[in-house]
Design brief:
Keywords: Aminotransferase, Pyridoxal phosphate, Transferase. It is a single chain. The protein has about 400 residues and is α/β, with parallel strands linked by helices. The protein has 14 helices and 17 strands. A seven-stranded mixed beta sheet has the order 4-10-9-8-7-5-6, sandwiched between helices. The protein has a four-stranded antiparallel beta sheet with strand order 13-14-17-16, with helices on one face. The chain is globular. Bound molecules: 4'-deoxy-4'-aminopyridoxal-5'-phosphate.
Amino acid sequence: MFNLENIRKDFPILSRKVNGKSLIYFDNAATSQTPKQVIDVIVAYYSNYNANIHRGVHTLSQEATDLYEQAREKIRRHFNAKHAHEIIFTSGTTHGINLVANGFSSLLKKGDEIIVSALEHHSNIVPWQMLCERTGAVLRVIPMNDDGELVMSEFDKLLSEKTKLVFVNHISNALGTINPIEYIIEKAHQVGAAVLIDGAQSSPHIKADVQKLDADFYVVSAHKMCGPTGVGVLYGKEAWLKKLPPYQGGGEMIAEVTFEKTTYADLPHKFEAGTPNICGGIAFGAAIDYMNRIGFKAIEKQERELLQYGTEKLLEIEGLKIYGTSEHKTSVISFNLEGIHPYDVGTILDKMGIAVRTGHHCAQPIMDYFKIPGTVRASFAFYNTKAEIDSLVEGVKKAKMMLS
Ligand code: PMP
């Protein structure tokens, strides 16, 4: 049973003041807040279990290893990966993407093509540009339309036997558009290309089933899902992970080392060099437990209502334009007030205790498309309320009055 009042009590930060006002947190697409159930796990870890994992015979090390591996299993179950060793712990989405991009350096040749979309975060553009520089592969871009949707007929035209990789986000962080990844994956596979889905923005809202989607890679960050910063996972199909070379060398990722030759450990350790973020991984497991206890159906329903309510209310303000008007979108409202810089609106809202993000949201090509320097982005989570949206609307009206 979804009880918003009780849920809000789980998040200590929601009762703090900012600039003398009750915090209203609408920057969830940048990072989500952390419930006490996850904070408690972090405290318990450093109070009781802190030890290095996988290599100790002593009790603490074994207990920490068990907790870490249990978290991997929770994450496997959540995303419905076939094997736990297909879940690679990373420092976040950016790390996961770079790991895959680096791995493909030895698998691509000059003239091969990589497709990304016009809706990508910089972390899903720059690593592929770097890969193209290393290999001579060519980057192609699926264009978007005025609603902030990808134009699938253009994607169809880009696909050919030259296409080796396709990278798209499941949900755009700048506009909230939900991309038709099922179609993209199916079509890309028809020409033999591998598909990486950037799930940084979808994972807090939608429970993805990587086997059903048939994604080759799916990357997420824990901090967008009520977990801590500095940890995430890369899901990769076993066959691909076996094929890709390791990203980093070091301890933990080897089978045997001599100065003549080193052999690599089996999955997942081949991609997990060095001491990982052990506490972070365990806390990520706890965050996934927390979100599943609330239930993704209830989360989606609450966020859909917030999005609809917020969109209607904000559009009542004259001169306010929303960017990203697809029917298929999730809880992000990116907007501008006519003739007013988004930074100024964000600064005034902050004075009222309202946290929104302003700027290009690491998605400059989208801003270029709309010919704007950036937007004000209010992004909702399941713990936000309609009353908070009312305060946002009042705040935006005040900002408009002060800045016009
Ligand atoms: N992709 C998308 C769509 C994102 O929203 C983000 C975070 N803003 C990232 C990638 C990068 O995630 P991280 O900074 O956690 O590596």
